[in-house]
Amino acid sequence: MMSKNNTNGRNQFAMLTIDDLVPQDHLVRKIDAALDFEFIYPIVEATYSDLGRPSIDPVILIKLVFIQYLFGIRSMRQTIKEVDTNVAYRWFLGYSFEEKIPHFSTFGKNYVRRFRETTVFEDIFAYILEQAVKAGFVTEDNLYLDSTHIKANANKHKFTKE
Questions:
Q1: Is residue 10 part of a domain?
Q2: Would you say residue 13 lies in a domain?
Q3: Residues 15, 71, 69, 108: is their CA dihedral positive or negative?
Q4: I need a labelling partner for 67 at 20 to 30 A (CA). Which of 23, 25, 37, 113 fits?
Q5: Residues whose CB is less than 8 angstroms from the CB of residue 95 and which lie 6 or more positions away in sequence, other chains included
């Protein structure tokens, strides 16, 4: 006898936290336990002003890039879509279900306006790498380089001659 799936579970109300929904062995939990991102604040402090509207937390901006590269997401636009729907990514960023994820252009604007002429990213990457080595995420046993060619997400027929 054929049965039909009941979709009423979509509207189910349950008392859960985001913490309950992220598996204990998920990579973002391991990273969160091993790496302390608080070091970012003093590094970027000089690039922020006391005037104007409140900004996006700089740790969130760096964690977005971290998620993008760690999980192989190809663009910031796609990263934001993934964070919007992935509970583990929201947990890693400290966002609730109700909180709106920053627009994908927020990172680009911050990079151009604040970080482009600085060594902020190099400093942050070096420190994260140092913490990752200490935590045992990175070893010097083997080094692999990926030279795979990735097809560009572009239209080769769109080019116009000037």
A1: no
A2: no
A3: negative
A4: 113
A5: 83, 101
Helix axes 58-70, 76-85, angle to 10 degrees: 100
The DSSP symbol for 37 reads G
3-class SS of residue 145: coil
- The encoded tokens of residue 39 equal 């070091």
User: pLDDT of the chain along its 162 residues, tens only?
Assistant: 777 777 777 777 778 889 999 999 999 999 999 999 999 999 988 888 888 888 889 999 999 999 999 999 999 999 999 999 999 999 999 999 999 999 888 888 888 878 888 888 889 989 998 998 888 888 777 766 666 666 666 666 666 665
Going by C-beta distance under 8 Å and a sequence separation of 6 or more, which residues neighbour residue 150? none
- Between CA 74 and CA 41 the distance in angstroms is 27
- Asked if residue 145 belongs to a domain, the reply is no
Residue 155 token pair: 């239209």
Domain that holds residue 62: 21-40+56-135
Q: Is residue 156 part of a domain?
A: no
Using CA atoms, how far apart are residues 24 and 97, in angstroms rounded to an integer?
19
Domains: count for the chain: 1
